[in-house]
Amino acid sequence: MKVNGIKVFFMTKSTFKKNKITSLMKQFFSILVLTLLFFGCSSDDNGSDNSGSDYFFKATLDGRKIDFYDVNFQGGGNDNRFEHITVGGFEEPYPNKVGELIPPSLDFEIWRTGGDIKAGTYSTPTEPEMVARYAVQTTNGTIVYSTSTADDVFTLKIESISKNGIKGTFSGKVRNLDSGVAIEITEGTFNLPYEDIINTTK
Question: Is position 199 within any domain?
Fold first, then answer.
């Protein structure tokens, strides 16, 4: 199902911490593609559709302004705390047909096991369990840009966070470790409900 496939996509991404991203990324995307083939092939009539709402996830990547589609905010933790959060979306609507390439995606996540992620500013590399990723699917595999190098800074400012949703801004760089090419992310802004997928369509 489309909604389940997207949730699997972001939940699968969430299992990787920053210190594991380099060595496991190729395996991750192989598993991801197989998972999405099984679960992401059709729409879910019961899924949330917040098209035209006040919810959004936007950014400028190397000068390209992007309004992301099929956006999701997830998180959880013990005792009603947010020990982990993930926010992400796709450049184009999620494909409905098996075999179609998944659009480029942008996401970021923070882990604070035993802690509590609240409103405030979080940055790499000072936040040890924080990562931002931009992934481009190709017929030859996945090209991943991430905050895996200590020189690249990605800053997330959370204005509000609760089981109702999350709001904030972000900016920084993500880099492909193979080529060394970096993507500059500016004007990032988001306002999202908790666990609902924002299914905006063109």
Answer: no
- Tens of pLDDT along 173-197? 999 999 999 999 999 999 999 999 9
Percent helix, strand and coil across the chain, each rounded to 5?
A: 20, 40, 40
Alpha-carbon gap, residue 137 to 104, rounded angstroms = 6
Range of the domain at 174: 2-193
CA atoms within 13 A on the CB side of 76: 5
Please count the structural domains in the chain. Answer: 1
Q: Residue 200: inside a domain, yes or no?
A: no
Closest CA to 87 of 188, 200, 201, 202: 188
Q: Which residues contact 79 (CB under 8 A, 6 or more apart)?
A: none
Q: Where are the alpha helices (DSSP H) in 15-117?
A: 21-39
Q: Give the residue carrying structure tokens 């309004």.
A: 67
Q: DSSP code of 92?
A: S
